[in-house]
Amino acid sequence: MVKTFNINDSVAKLVDKTTFLKTLNYIDSGQLKTPYLVIDGDKLARNAATIGKGIQNSKVFYAVKANPAQNVLDFLNRQGTGFEISSMGELHVLAALKIAPERIISSNPVKIPDFIAAAHNYGIRMFSLDSTAEVKKISALAPGSSVYVRLSVPNEGSEWPLSKKFGVEIEDAVSLILMSKDYGLNPVGVTFHVGSQCNNVYNWNIAVDKAGLVFDMAAQAGVSLSVLNIGGGYPIKYTRDVPGVQVIEQNINKLITQRFGKTMEVHLEPGRSMVGDAGIMVSRVTGKADRLNEKWLYIDVGVFNGLMESIGGIKYSYIVETTPQTAAKQNWVLAGPSCDSFDVIDKNVYLNEPEPGDMVLIISGGAYTISYASEFNGCAIPHTVIV
Ligand SMILES: Cc1ncc(COP(=O)(O)O)c(C=O)c1O
Question: Using CA positions, which residue lies closest to atom 7 of ligand 1?
Fold first, then answer.
C-alpha cells in the first residue's frame, strides 16, 4: 500500500518546503536507521547569512550547545561564523576543527576552572562573569583576559526562560566591572539573555536600557565599555508563527543606536535560530496502545534521546507517514522508546493513525535535541546528517 507523509495546512505553513523535500529524499535513500536528524545545509547557510545582518557592527558567535555535531560546526566554520562555548567538551570539538581562538568566546558565567585554564591556553580571551568568585578565578587562570558581565533581564514571553540561574542587577554589574579592573582583567562590556525562544520583542527593549545604565555608571566610575553582547533568544517556528529575524533585529538595532550611537561592537550568540528550523528529526513508530481512555503512540526518539525540551515547555509539530485509507485524526499521547514514565513527549497530539514501522517527522528539531540526548536505557542518540 502506498504511504505518504500526511502534512496538514497548519504544519505546511511552519516547515520550510525545501527542507522537507530534502528530508524525504534522504529518507528514500535508506542510508540510516531511525532515529536521525536531517539538517538542510542550504537552510543552515541561509540562517548563518541572515542572523546579525540587521545589526550594525555585529559579530555572530554560534552557541555550540544548541547542536555540537562536528559536521554542523564544520559547516558553520566554513560560513565564517564565530562560536560561543561553555565547557572543555565544546572546546575540544572546536580545537579538533582548528578554529582560531579569536573566533571563540565563552559566556557561561560560572565556568569549571580547568576549562578556563584550557581555554586561555588555547588563546581564548573573552569570558563572561557575574560573581566575585568568577573574577578571582578568571584573573588567576586566564590573567589579563577581557571580561563582560551578565546582567539579569526579563525573560517574560520566552518559552525557555534563562533568567534565574545567572545575571546580576545594575549596581552589582558595575561593582564587578570595577573589581575586574582591580584584578588586572580588561572589562569590555555587558551581556544578557532574554530567554530562549523569546516571542516577546519588548524583552530586548528593557535589556538594552539596563545595559545602557551599566555603561553610563561604569563610565562615571572611569571605565569605558565598548562591547554589548545580546546573547541568543531569537524564536523559530514550532507550532505557530513567530517574529522573524529581520523584524527582531530592526528593533534591536534601533534600540542600540538610540542608546549607544553607532560605534558599539555588538556580539550575538544565536543557538536555536541558527540550527533549529534547519533540522527535521526522523523517527519511527515502535508501538501503539489503548490505556484507559487514552490512545498511546510510541516512537524511537523520546525525552531522553533527543526531545528533552518537550518536558520543559517546547511543543513540536509532527508529520506522520500514513496510507490514504488511514483512520481519521485523533489525539495521541506521544511517548519515547525508554521504559521510564517521564519519557512522554506530549499529550493531545492530533495526528492520523500510523502503524508500527511508519515514520514520524518532527519539524524544527535541529536545536537542543542531540545536545541534550543521552543513551539512557540503551536507546540510540540520533545521528546528524547534513543534506
Ligand atoms: C550564554 C548563552 N548564549 C547563547 C545561548 C543560545 O540561546 P538561543 O538558543 O536561545 O539562541 C544560550 C542558551 O542557553 C546561552 O546560555
Answer: 232
